[in-house]
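Input.
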Amino acid sequence: MFGAGLLGVGLVSYRDAQWAGSLQQWHRREAWRIVEEFGDANAMRPAAILVFVGSLFQEDRRFQDAAFTGLESLMMANLLTNALKAVTGRSRPWQEPGADDWELLSGKTSFPSGHATTAFALMTPWIMYFDHPLAWVGMGVAAASSLSRVTLRYHWPSDVLAGALIGSSVSIWLSRRHQKDTRSMNTMARGTFEGNELQERGKRVQSMPVVGLRHVGLRLTF
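Output.
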């Protein structure tokens, strides 16, 4: 998956200027600025914290796990993205000289897209935990928020693709890890419960020999 992601980003980068130019003609549409907010880390971090805190008042353990995984994915994926931004030093579409300008540690921060990273890091866990249409709607919002960054001339298409891959990959990894841990804990808990139940049964069963003039037997009391 990692190799395929790198290959995809590399292939898209060859068409960055062309595809960005086609999308930027729609930059005046107000809808792009609305969906863009769903990838803003400054807004989504508090929102993710609120969702997680709210999940603690629910009895649905799976909902709690999804909310926590989304918050954890957001933090980890953003750390990785910000590190790559600082190292790669790619120019944004509104900066000169263009898509092919990469200057390491130059302070330019186009690659990868932080908005795409944030949106997919938050939404992917809900797909992993719930097979529900609303979860797929959330993924559609994440895709629209990411695409808006190209339309509004903040990122190149390959920036957005790289950010989406980082956010979704971190989320998938964490979701699978948490789900595996949960299954292990449930198995251990079930084994402990069954062992305790058998032990209690053993304590409740009492035996007493019965000896009479014409019979010999054993009486069991449950």
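Helices lie at 2-13, 16-24, 30-36, 41-55, 61-88, 114-129, 133-151, 157-204.
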